[in-house]
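Quarterly update from the structural biology core.
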Amino acid sequence: MGRRHLARELALKVLFELESDGGDVERSLKYHVAESRADAEVADFARVLVEGVRDHQAEIDAQLAEASRNWGLDQMAKVERTLLRIATFEIRYLPSVPLKAAINESIELAKTFGGPDSGKFVNGILGRIAADAEIRRPPADQAATREAS
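Predicted structure, tokenized:
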């Protein structure tokens, strides 16, 4: 399992837990990092994802509502909704993450933690989000150049 895959899985677990009980981000993150024996780099990326989703949740949810024509956010399974939020954050706010990586990782996590059709559902919605984002997002090499400067 790749490091970023593990970080996304940790972010999924933390955000899933926080949506249920509104608990403490740091406590939840520390618990899941320790349980998975993740190193500092994995924990840092998981933290970026968790905080990013929470900081931008209103905008992310609006984008998801627009992209999911037949499903309201409240109708989605919690796992799928959480994965869609994470991937949408990556697609919209982390230009250094390749679109395909954000989408493929979310599909794989949906297959692991969701129902039998979760991967297809997540793929369909993220395809719409990504198509819109590609219009406004610089290519990864330009984003990497900007981040390095």
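The longest helix spans residues 3-21.
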